[in-house]
TrEMBL record:
Keywords: Cell membrane, Membrane, Transmembrane, Transmembrane helix
Protein name: MASE1 domain-containing protein
Record-level GO cellular component terms: plasma membrane
Coarse class of the protein's main subcellular location: membrane
Organism for this UniProt entry: Streptomyces himalayensis subsp. himalayensis
Domain of life: Bacteria
């Protein structure tokens, strides 16, 4: 140990245990909201935490995912074989998503359009197929689920894990590099607080009305003005508050079948996630392009200034037309008559 720093293996062990604790805590937030057919949470935050941990700290964190998944599922009711199989699926899914993103050249800053598209299609939609397939198969093989219910359970399981990635992972990646901005005017802070208040008000309105679309102006506002740093927290707040309306069956989810409510919530979450992520990264790329253009223009202006004024006294004469008499040099004292 040097300079009071812990050995690497001790630090890694503490990180693994911390990830396991966070995983269990996030699972407890999801498990009480078991509103989907068959008792699956409509949003599974641990999937987002697991993938973010692998992206930020590497594959050495996978034991924390396994420990957390086992502790979270062992109290949920399935038999021990089913719990072990579900644990394997919940561990392999973020690992597969990590490898897919790594092969695609994903950057954890998620400031490029290709990064966001990779996170959506490879990290969320493709990677979470593993956990849904293994978990649903385990329930069927252990008798907890009839064979006819495999695909309904699989679709809900897959959508829940994918939404956990789309909602939680971008926020954690943003928090990794977030810094208190410098030189921000008071008006900018007022705008940020106004955006937060409008987002909460729009999301809470879902509890008393059926107008789910009221939250989209807030997402667009956040993406345009604050990019992913503003859109990701807004998306998480909206998803959480709308899930409360789903749990209480109020507003947009009142007097409707539970299955229809879950499908509506899934479609709503997917639409808000795509809007927040894609629009924010497109605006960020546009801003970077404009900044690069300004830098190039400034460099060109400096280069022109260094060259100095252009001397026009020795310019080459324009080309003569066919049949035109060449000009004479009057400096030699010969005019038009002297040339004959």
């Amino acid at each position: 140990m040097r300079h009071g720093r812990l050995p690497r293996h001790v630090t890694t062990s503490l990180q693994i245990l911390a990830l396991a604790a966070v995983y269990v805590g996030a699972a407890k937030l999801g498990l009480p909201q078991e509103l989907s057919p068959g008792g699956i949470s409509p949003l599974w935050p641990p999937a987002g935490f697991a993938l973010a941990a692998l992206l930020l700290f590497g594959l050495r964190m996978w034991p924390g995912i396994a420990i957390g998944a086992f502790c979270a599922n062992v109290t949920a009711g399935p038999s021990v074989p089913a719990v072990l199989a579900i644990t394997v699926g919940d561990t392999l899914a973020p690992i597969c998503a990590y490898h897919l993103l790594h092969r695609a050249g994903f950057h954890v800053a998620a400031q490029r359009l290709r990064d966001v598209l990779a996170l959506i299609f490879l990290g969320a939609l493709a990677g979470m197929v593993v956990s849904a397939t293994i978990g649903s198969s385990a329930l069927v093989l252990t008798g907890r689920l009839p064979a006819s219910g495999f695909w309904p359970r699989w679709s809900v399981w897959w959508a829940d894990d994918a939404r956990g990635v789309l909602v939680v992972t971008p926020l954690l990646l943003v928090l990794r590099s977030v810094r208190l901005p410098r030189g921000v005017t008071a008006l900018h802070w007022v705008e940020a607080w106004a955006l937060a208040g409008a987002t909460i008000a729009a999301a809470l309105s879902v509890n008393i009305s059926a107008f789910l679309f009221m939250v989209f102006p807030c997402l667009i506002w956040a993406a345009f003005r604050f990019q992913l740093a503003g859109a990701a927290p807004c998306q998480l707040a909206i998803s959480t508050l709308v899930m409360i309306a789903l749990a209480n069956r109020t507003g947009a989810f009142a007097h409707r079948e539970p299955v229809l409510n879950v499908i509506t919530f899934q479609a709503f979450n997917l639409a808000t996630a795509l809007t927040a992520l894609l629009l924010s990264v497109i605006i960020a790329e546009r801003n970077r392009t404009q900044q690069e253009i300004r830098q190039v223009c400034g460099q060109l202006a400096e280069l022109v200034a260094e060259l100095g004024p252009v001397d026009t006294t020795h310019r080459r004469p324009p080309p003569r037309k066919s049949g035109e008499t060449p000009p004479t040099d009057d400096t030699n004292g010969a005019g038009p008559e002297g040339a004959r």
